[in-house]
Amino acid sequence: xKIAVLDKCTVTNGDVSLAALEEIGEVKYFDxxxxxxxxxxxxxxxxVIVNKAKITSEIMDACPSLRFVGLFATGYNNIDVTxxxxxxIAVCNVPGYSTESVxxxxxxxxLHFATSIGKYSESTSRGDWANSETFSYLSxxxxxxxxxxxxxxxxxxxxxxxARIGRAFGMDIIATSRRKMYVExxxxxxxxxxxxxxxxxxxxxxxxxxxxxxxxRETLALMKPTAVLINTSRGxxxxxxxxxxxxxxxxxxxxxxxxxxVEPMTKGHPYLDTKNIIITxxxxxxxxxxxxxxxxxxxxxxxxxxxxEILNRVEL
Length: 316
What we know:
Elements (H helix, E strand, L loop, with lengths): L1 E4 L13 H4 L3 E4 L8 H5 L4 E4 L6 H6 L5 E4 L9 H7 L2 E3 L6 H17 L1 H9 L23 E5 L3 H12 L3 E5 L9 E3 L2 H7 L2 E4 L13 H6 L5 E4 L8 H9 L5 E4 L19 E3 L8 H19 L10
Parallel strand pairs: 1-2, 1-3, 3-4, 4-5, 6-7, 6-9, 7-8, 9-10, 10-11, 11-12
Helix pairs in contact: 5-7
């Protein structure tokens, strides 16, 4: 089997092996590829594996040998699934590979704001401790998580993992989810109550017509001025200008943001001069362990397809 791998640079910088794919067939690798160059990159390959590159109906028509589209991701909005179905092309995603990795970064954001660890590190590097008259100084707030309310919007696998960590810290967990369920130690509340009561509000929902702009002027106005917003889901869930205004005006204590509406971040983005915001470049999913799992699962999807089995197919 001939396999084209696009977006290679988004899943490994050499620290994670792609050998599992090479065991299946003849692989050619590409990093970022301009849209008009994608048909040429795929060529006569029977399988293409992508992360964010768009595979459209036009690309499928230009690549008649194509039988399989694999994703280095859970989301598949960059694939024309309807067109793939019409052409008999299998489309497979990878669910659940990054649960622990994303939950970990969400809590790294929470701990940053609870402990002021970044500010203390910067202060020490400036020589403030060396110049201190006492053994310790408390220039920045430190608060305990125990007894605080952690709100979670979206209680899928990642949301549940965040809830589990929060419970270990002694936090009270409230959540809103589109599916009714029972989760030990979690109180289910309305969306409005979630925004009102949360000391830390962590978003773990897909980007849909229902969740786009979930965080806006109206919902931000419900939040406590001492609250912190965490977004490791999708950028479009948060309206960026209202969040910037809330942070700069002190109507919200802080925000930890791993995703933006347009990625990569545009030059001069308004978040760059926003107060009390921590921004990471969409890396919550990217632990070494998660990427290793991801590549192994991508390879298994392709092996299953070769065997005529259905595994993680999204076009059916």
